[in-house]
Write a structure and sequence with these properties.
By secondary structure, the protein is an alpha/beta fold. Helices cover about 35% and strands about 15% of the residues.
Length: about 270
């Protein structure tokens, strides 16, 4: 069956999306806006004397240089900020891949984010959190103890996954939205898309397993902000904003979230003539 929404031009895409879509000049504009929203929320919560809790990705990553620059330039204190990263790759025996592996999300965050922020501004190490295959229940308990997540940032995968919440056609939408943090085997579509950008197409060296924050934790965030800028995001965004709400394409389930927004580039908004 042909899906008409895949062929919507920019005007049609923006006419009545079920998730708000904001078009920006290019991917750097998307990244800057994401970084600004992170910083503004931290400043707001700092002024209130409250903690800030984010769920954050390592993909997209282009927001982090701007985030680090703003934090350092404005001397913004992160002592009351918690950053919970979405996911991490696992070895065949379901352990974290080594932090010095080029694919490690933990390694990226420590090198490119925490390692570049002025030490006097940085939050304690216990507030830099990754889902842990040795303690899967920790994320859910932590989020509850912190009073929930202020903003979940992220992107959308080729098959609609948010974090690594792969499509599960056998589940009802309501069941899928209750899935917690867990270990899973990634789909071949996800591994293929990721290896193109991260391993120059070396599919056989792409990990098969991961640990991911669940749709339950993501959907319960007070705000969700997604950035889309790749060529194949043209179809992905249209599916998320107009497709059926089902576990076949998890991003479409965010149509029912109270405060989700997708930021896209002019390139993604347009279709080839």
């Amino acid at each position: 069956m042909k899906h008409n929404y895949f062929y919507f031009n920019k005007e049609e895409l923006l006419r009545d999306p079920k998730i708000p879509i904001y078009v920006m000049k290019d991917e750097q504009a998307v990244f800057k806006e994401m970084a600004m929203e992170m910083v503004e929320e931290i400043e707001r919560k700092n002024q209130l004397g409250e903690r800030t809790v984010f769920i954050c990705p390592v993909g997209p990553t282009g927001q982090y240089p701007y985030f680090v620059e703003l934090i350092n330039e404005k001397n913004i204190m992160l002592k009351n900020v918690w950053i919970i990263n979405m996911d991490e790759y696992l070895t065949e025996d379901k352990k974290w891949i080594p932090e010095n592996d080029s694919l490690s999300f933990r390694g990226f965050m420590n090198r490119e984010v925490y390692g570049r922020i002025k030490p006097q501004l940085l939050m304690p190490e216990k507030q830099r959190v990754f889902p842990d295959p040795e303690n899967i229940a920790h994320i859910g308990r932590l989020i509850t103890s912190l009073g929930g997540v202020d903003i979940c940032f992220g992107g959308i995968g080729i098959n609609g996954h948010i974090a690594f919440n792969e499509a599960q056609d056998e589940l009802a939408a309501e069941e899928f939205l209750e899935l917690p943090t867990r270990i899973l085997e990634m789909s071949k579509e996800t591994r293929t898309a990721n290896c193109i950008g991260d391993l120059n197409g070396a599919l056989d060296d792409m990990p098969r397993y991961c640990i991911t924050i669940g749709m339950k934790e993501i959907f319960q965030a007070r705000k969700i902000r997604l950035g889309c800028f790749r060529s194949w995001h043209r179809g992905v965004v249209r599916h998320a904003a107009y497709g059926e709400k089902s576990a076949h394409f998890p991003a479409a389930l965010l149509q029912d979230h109270a405060d989700t927004a997708i930021r896209i580039t002019e390139f993604v908004a347009a279709l080839p003539e």
